[in-house]
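Hi V.,

Quick status before I head out on leave. The structure for the redesign project is tokenized and pasted below; the design run finished overnight.
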């Protein structure tokens, strides 16, 4: 795409959109409990999930977050680090007005992990966890194939989802969290109905799949812990943020307190999508003011939230808390529907 066309495609995002254009869906690997075990052998892993961090959950809601994706995982028979979502946590999220969505992920980067027999085993485990937290039937359980395509064969991944589908027997909707090539594989086979792409632009097929516009959910920022949402709540908290494709869906299969499906206003989804852009330069500097001193940078094929734009400059939020972090040149950005190809560069991702 020519630079002039890219500039023309960038809308004048009003400052009033700050709250309505934030990424409003997050995923968290661990629940936010103040007594969560954090590499401390003196804390019991089971009893260390008793003091909910209400301040953090209030901050989520105030920042415009309305949905939290949480985990089922074999790793924690003792609920190590509060990884497995519990009924207590479900109630806690709902008390703060947050919908809950579910993803199963365990050893997703292990070589040759995905087979038909393992798919059946994981599906049975998820049914038991769903019973424990009273996950409503008809909601979605995503399964994480959290690796690039080389570690697991196409046939193995297909067999895995075929087994999940058989064991579920229509009780739950099936989603996949995977590189673009894996989402395309399972979508073409008709073995899942929701497709969630990780923030891993180098993974096989992700560039093509994102630009095919067939995806439902994109994990646009990972490991955020230095933002107004995550910082200053008495513990170190990591969150990832996600964007819904408004052309494909109004729902990701999350559920509310009464068990109903959480749906999203199309105008809100469009505002979020239109305010997020791809970086189209190897390294794009962020300045404290237009033409000022560099305060941060962005790397190729990563997203940024544009708060406003004027005279060739975009005011940007780089850690998804809705607050501006500086300015970058508009010519270094492309719309969300036009993901550039990732390439290896010297640009290093910043802690956010």
């Amino acid at each position: 795409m020519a630079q002039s066309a890219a500039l023309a495609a960038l809308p004048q995002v009003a400052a009033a959109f700050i709250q309505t254009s934030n990424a409003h869906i997050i995923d968290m690997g661990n629940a936010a409990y103040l007594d969560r075990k954090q590499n401390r052998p003196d804390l019991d892993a089971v009893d260390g999930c008793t003091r909910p961090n209400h301040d953090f959950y209030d901050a989520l809601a105030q920042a415009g977050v309305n949905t939290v994706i949480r985990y089922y995982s074999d790793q924690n028979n003792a609920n190590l680090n509060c990884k497995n979502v519990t009924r207590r946590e479900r109630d806690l999220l709902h008390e703060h007005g947050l919908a809950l969505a579910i993803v199963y992920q365990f050893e997703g980067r292990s070589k040759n992990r995905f087979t038909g027999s393992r798919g059946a085993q994981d599906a049975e485990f998820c049914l038991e966890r769903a019973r424990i937290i009273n996950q409503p039937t008809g909601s979605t359980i995503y399964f994480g194939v959290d690796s690039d395509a080389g570690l697991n064969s196409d046939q193995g991944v297909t067999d895995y989802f075929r087994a999940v589908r058989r064991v579920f027997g229509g009780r739950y909707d099936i989603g996949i969290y995977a590189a673009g090539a894996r989402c395309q594989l399972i979508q073409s086979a008709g073995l899942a109905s929701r497709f969630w792409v990780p923030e891993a632009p180098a993974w096989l097929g992700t560039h093509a799949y994102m630009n095919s516009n067939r995806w439902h959910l994109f994990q646009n920022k990972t490991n955020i812990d230095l933002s107004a949402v995550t910082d200053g709540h008495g513990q170190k908290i990591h969150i990832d943020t996600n964007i819904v494709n408004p052309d494909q869906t109004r729902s990701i299969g999350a559920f509310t307190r009464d068990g109903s499906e959480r749906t999203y206003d199309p105008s809100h989804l469009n505002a979020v999508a239109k305010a997020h852009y791809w970086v189209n330069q190897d390294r794009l500097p962020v300045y404290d003011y237009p033409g000022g001193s560099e305060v941060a940078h962005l790397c190729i094929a990563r997203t940024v939230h544009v708060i406003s734009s004027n005279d060739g400059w975009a005011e940007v939020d780089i850690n998804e808390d809705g607050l501006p972090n500086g300015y970058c040149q508009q010519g270094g950005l492309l719309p969300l529907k036009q993901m550039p190809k990732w390439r290896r560069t010297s640009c290093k991702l910043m802690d956010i």
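Above is the designed sequence. The chain is about 25% helix and 25% strand.

G. will cover questions while I'm gone.

Best,
W.
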